[in-house]
Amino acid sequence: MPKCQRTDSKAWMHALAYVAALSYLGLPTDRLKDSGILLSENEITEEFRTLRIATYWIARKRKPRRILEELNKNQLTILHVLGFWVKYGRVLQS
Q1: The pTM is what?
Q2: How far is Cα 3 from Cα 66, in angstroms, rounded to an integer?
Q3: Which residue, 69, 73, 70, is CA-closest to 37?
Q4: Which residues of the chain have pLDDT under 70?
Q5: Residues 32, 21 contacting (CB under 8 angstroms)
Q6: What pLDDT, on the 0 to 100 scale, is given for residue 3?
Q7: To 10 degrees, what angle do helices 6-34 and 41-49 make?
Q8: How do the domains of the chain map onto residue ranges?
């Protein structure tokens, strides 16, 4: 009877994480297709990768604030379809 190695359980966890990641990536793609926007998973990932966040301090505040820098048309469209709105550089959930 073969013994179970510790690395066997790690392989199952890696497979589970991979399947979960693919599922979560498919959700925005489906919503965008329903809205009539045809972007692939790679294009969506690349658009989110290029998001720029600016961090700034306000006088007498303990924590810095973060805002999104200017969004291009695709990024703004993706956020709107996913249920988020951008106002003054801040992302709001509707």
Answers
A1: 0.61
A2: 51
A3: 73
A4: 1-9, 93-94
A5: no
A6: 56
A7: 90
A8: 6-93
